[in-house]
From TrEMBL:
Organism from which the protein derives: Solanum commersonii
Residues annotated as transmembrane: 467-491
UniProt keywords, alphabetically: Cell membrane, Glycoprotein, Leucine-rich repeat, Membrane, Receptor, Repeat, Signal, Transmembrane, Transmembrane helix
Lineage, highest ranks first: Eukaryota, Viridiplantae, Streptophyta, Embryophyta, Tracheophyta
One GO CC annotation: plasma membrane
Name used for this protein in its record: Leucine-rich repeat-containing N-terminal plant-type domain-containing protein
Membrane topology recorded in Swiss-Prot or TrEMBL: Single-pass type I membrane protein
BP-aspect Gene Ontology terms: defense response to fungus; detection of stimulus
Length: 510
């Protein structure tokens, strides 16, 4: 017993110290709480703002007024969106994304008194045309800064380039611009940067030669950059995602040798840039690639054989180019859930569809505007999750097989401008959104209300959400020969699964 008492007295001071530290660990300094409350009172709550926002991965997040929970009777470390250092109590993170804030963001905002901030997210609010204050550059501990879609306008101050510890920088707004050379200055100074997202920002610049060697994600869209993309970007050894969209004056030349990013790159998304030429064989080394989108980039020629080695590809979009070759080759990719080859010069027939076991993973298949010939096979299985099938403007013939009418998850079907004949059938899908069968030689009556999937065709006259079958009369023969233009419009706020799984960059030109 004496040993127990002795041990207790020895440990008692330590236990007291731990209890004391624990009681203080979440106490917010009064001056920081006051700064946050002053910041709160500068804005009103816009209850008409959307209840949902999208994060960087396109996932929906709830929008609600976080600052309503802020009041002086509680510790600021317990307020919504506020996070404190567990030891000092200093406010180190402020996440106010989608907080329905509205009002002017003043250049001397009390927010700048929070000198220990490491994370600041003000995205998806309405700061009513405010300028970005140069004082953001004084938050020298920041590692994460997101000012996207928040109503800021004007020049991005050069002082932002002082934030040398930044790991993540996101500025997405068509109302913002850099002064000449400030974009290069920014990237020159942000040597610790991991993720960079610029959308709509006028950079007034050639694309800089040097990027942080730590960079994992580069997202540039509609940024008015010009010149040639430095080959060094493809050799960043930590690069996981490269997205370049709607930058027509930007020239991209792919390395012809193995890229240093070959092992790490999982997402390569280019659309609306000038990548004239062929896909080089060096693509065969990108063994970690899951999303390959090179759309509307003036590519030509055939697909190099090493590309078939990319066994991890899940989404492939090569639409709106001048590529050629047999379309059947693309089903060597065993993990595909989405494939778009629309508006190219691919040829061949679709018999390979009956030889593949899709295991229900394929969600969209787009081959429109190519030179595909022959019938659609009648014995195709494993497409129970197919939601979008677009084969328009080819040279397909024969009857439309019954399995297409029986697809349970189908939302979009376009078989227009081919040479199909025979009778139409009732669709089994309960989720149909649009169907187009026009410019074929199909026979049979327009399906009556019983042939319209349940939940469709219930609108009243004058209701813009009404679902209807529309037909274009083409002539008479044995029975009624018609070209069907069938359009379903479904009163729904939900996107098809294949649509919601694709981020904004992957949806371009599919």
């Amino acid at each position: 017993m004496d040993y127990v008492k002795l041990l207790f007295f020895m440990l008692f001071p330590l236990l007291c110290q731990l209890a004391f530290c624990s009681s203080l660990s979440h106490l917010c300094p009064k001056d920081q709480a006051l700064a946050l409350l002053q910041f709160k009172h500068m804005f009103t709550i816009n209850y008409d703002a959307s209840d949902h926002c999208l994060d960087k991965k396109g996932q929906s997040i709830q929008s609600y007024p976080k600052t309503l929970s802020w009041n002086k009777s509680t510790d600021c470390c317990s307020w919504d969106g506020v996070y404190c250092d567990e030891t000092t109590g200093n406010v180190i993170e402020l996440n106010l994304t989608c907080s329905k804030l509205q009002g002017k963001f003043h250049s001397n905002s009390s927010l700048f008194q929070l000198s220990n901030l490491k994370w600041l997210d003000l995205s998806e609010n309405d700061f009513s045309g405010s300028l970005i204050s140069p004082k953001f550059g004084e938050l020298s501990s920041l590692k994460h800064l997101d000012l996207s879609y928040s109503g800021f306008t004007g020049l991005i101050p050069a002082e932002i380039s002082r934030l040398s510890k930044l790991h993540v920088l996101s500025i997405e707004s068509s109302l913002l611009r850099f002064e000449p050379h400030n974009f290069e200055l920014l990237l020159e100074n942000l040597t610790q940067l991991r993720e960079l997202y610029f959308y709509g920002v006028n950079t007034s610049s050639t694309i800089p030669l040097n990027f942080s060697s730590y960079l994992t994600t580069l997202y540039l869209r509609n940024t008015q950059l010009y010149g040639t993309l430095p080959e060094g970007i493809f050799h960043l050894s930590n690069l996981e995602s490269l997205t370049l969209l709607e930058i027509p004056q930007l020239t991209v030349r792919f390395p012809t040798t193995k890229w240093n990013s070959s092992a790490s790159l999982m997402e390569l998304v280019l659309s609306g840039v000038n990548a004239t030429g062929r896909i080089p064989e060096s693509f065969g080394h990108l063994t970690s690639l899951r999303n390959l989108t090179i759309a509307s980039c003036n590519l030509s020629g055939s697909i190099p054989k090493p590309l078939w080695n990319l066994t991890n590809i899940e989404l492939l979009n090569l639409g709106h180019n001048h590529l050629e070759g047999p379309i059947s080759d693309f089903f060597r990719f065993g993990k595909l859930w989405g494939l778009s080859l629309a508006n190219n010069n691919f040829d061949g027939q679709l018999e390979f569809l009956s030889f593949n076991n899709f295991d229900g993973q394929l969600e969209f298949l787009h081959f429109s505007s190519n030179s595909v010939t022959g019938p659609i096979p009648s014995n195709v299985s494993g497409l129970q999750n197919l939601q979008s099938l677009r084969l328009s403007s080819n040279h397909l013939n024969g009857t439309i097989p019954s399995w297409i009418f029986s697809l349970p998850s189908l939302t979009h079907l376009n078989l227009s401008d081919n040479h199909f004949s025979g009778n139409t059938q009732e669709f089994k899908s309960q989720t149909l959104f649009s169907v187009s069968l026009k410019q074929n030689q199909l026979q049979g009556p327009i399906p009556n209300d019983d042939g319209v999937p349940q939940g469709l065709g219930q609108g009243e006259e004058g209701d813009s959400s009404m679902i209807s079958w529309q037909a274009v009369l083409m002539g008479y023969g044995c029975g009624l020969v018609i070209g069907l233009s069938i359009i379903y419009i479904m009163l729904s706020t939900q996107y098809p699964t294949w649509f919601s799984r694709m981020d904004d960059s992957s949806l371009v030109y599919i």
